[in-house]
Design a protein that fits this description.
Elements: H1 15-18, E1 23-25, E2 32-33, H2 52-64, E3 69-71, H3 81-89, E4 97-106, E5 112-115, H4 118-132, E6 137-143, H5 153-165, E7 169-175, H6 179-186, E8 193-197, H7 206-210, H8 218-228, E9 231-235, H9 249-257, H10 261-272, H11 285-293, H12 301-311
Parallel strand pairs: 1-3, 3-4, 4-6, 6-7, 7-8, 8-9
Antiparallel strand pairs: 1-2, 4-5
Helix pairs in contact: 2-3, 4-5, 9-10
Length: 314
C-alpha cells in the first residue's frame, strides 16, 4: 500500500475522534450510531413528517445519553432530518458536532443523483447552514459519486476547499472514496473523516451497488485511515444478513455475550480499528439504548477473527 504523509488534522486534533462520545446518523431519518463508545442499530427505517414526535424523542434520548455527533444532510428527507434536528436541539449543546454531506441529492423515486458541481455544492452548503441554523458547518463530507460523475473529483473537492476557506465549513471529510481519492484529497487539504459503506461482511455487494457506494478495496481504505488517525464512519454497518443465522460465529458470540447479533456486528467493527465510528440507524428510542449497551461488549481476538472470516468466506 502506498505510504501517506502525516495528516495535520489527524489523531488527537481530529474532532471526530477526540471529541465524539457517541453518534447519531440520520438516513432520511434520525437513526442512532456509535463512536468509540459504541452503539448499533436493528433497522434503518425513515423518520419522516409522518412521525415527527418519535423523531424528536430519539434525538432527545441521544443527547441525554451523551451522544455528541450527529450525521445528517439536507437531502435526507429531503429537508426533513435537518429541520427536525434544529427544531429539537437548537440551541445546540456546546460540545455537539454536526456532520453533513454534499455531492448528491435524492430524486422523487428515492434514487440518487449527482449534485457535486461547484454551484451545487455551494447551494447545498447554504441549505445546510440555514436549515441547521448554523453559522459554520462542523464537518462536511464530499459524497463522491464515482467516475460517472459529470465533473472530476478534484473539481468538486476544490469547490469544497473554497467553501472551507470562506469560513462556511470547519473540517472537510469524504464519502464513497477509495484509496486513490483519499490520497488525492490529502495532497490538497486535511481530511478528518471518511464515510464508506462497510460491515463485518465487507464493503461491497448489492447494497453498495444500489446506493452507488462501491469503492475499490474497502479494507485498504480503512487501514489507510487508521494509519493517519482519520475517522472511518461505516454506514449500513449492520448488513449482516445470513451471517447472523444460527450456527454462525456471529450468532455464537451473541449467545456467549448475552447480546443481539446487531450488537455483536457493531462490537466487531469497534474492535476492527480504533478509528472506526459505526453509524447504524434506528427510529426507536429503545433501540438507541440497546445500541448504547453494545459499548460494553469486548470481543476476544479469536471471536473477531472467526466472525470476520466466516462473513467474508466465498
Amino acid at each position: 500500500m502506498p505510504m501517506l504523509e502525516k495528516n495535520p488534522e489527524s489523531t488527537t486534533s481530529n474532532p471526530v475522534i477526540s471529541r465524539v462520545h457517541w453518534v447519531i446518523r440520520s438516513f432520511e431519518t434520525i437513526p442512532s450510531m456509535p463512536r468509540r463508545s459504541k452503539t448499533f442499530h436493528r433497522d434503518c427505517p425513515r423518520i419522516s413528517t409522518e412521525d415527527p414526535a418519535r423523531a424528536r424523542e430519539v434525538l432527545r434520548r441521544v443527547v441525554s445519553l451523551g451522544i455528541n455527533l450527529i450525521d445528517t444532510a439536507w437531502y435526507y428527507g429531503p429537508h426533513v432530518s435537518n429541520r427536525l434536528i434544529a427544531e429539537t436541539l437548537h440551541p445546540y449543546p456546546k460540545d455537539l458536532v454536526i456532520a453533513t454531506k454534499l455531492g448528491g441529492k435524492r430524486l422523487p423515486d428515492k434514487g440518487w443523483a449527482f449534485f457535486g458541481r461547484p454551484e451545487d455544492l455551494r447551494e447545498g452548503c447554504e441549505i445546510d447552514l440555514r436549515s441547521l441554523r448554523r453559522d459554520v458547518l462542523d464537518v462536511v463530507h464530499f459524497r463522491y459519486m464515482g467516475k460517472s460523475a459529470p465533473v472530476s473529483f478534484t473539481e468538486s473537492l476544490d469547490a469544497m476547499i473554497a467553501l472551507k476557506n470562506e469560513g462556511k465549513i470547519r473540517h472537510l471529510a469524504l464519502s464513497n472514496v477509495g484509496l486513490k481519492e483519499l490520497e488525492i484529497a490529502l495532497a490538497r487539504t486535511p481530511i478528518v473523516a471518511v464515510q464508506n459503506l462497510y460491515s463485518v461482511a465487507g464493503g461491497g455487494g448489492h447494497m453498495a451497488r444500489l446506493t452507488h457506494a462501491e469503492v475499490e478495496s474497502p479494507d485498504v481504505v480503512l487501514d489507510a485511515c487508521a494509519a493517519r488517525g482519520i475517522a472511518f464512519l461505516p454506514f449500513f454497518p449492520l448488513g449482516i444478513g445470513a451471517h447472523a443465522q444460527p450456527g454462525t460465529p456471529l450468532a455464537a458470540a451473541a449467545t456467549r455475550h448475552g447480546a443481539t447479533p446487531a450488537q455483536i456486528a457493531l462490537a466487531w467493527l469497534l474492535a476492527r480499528s480504533p478509528v472506526v465510528v459505526p453509524i447504524p440507524g434506528t427510529s426507536r428510542p429503545e433501540h438507541v439504548e440497546e445500541n448504547w449497551a453494545a459499548r460494553n461488549i469486548a470481543l476476544t481476538q479469536d471471536e473477531v477473527r472467526d466472525i470476520g472470516a466466516a462473513a467474508r468466506a466465498p
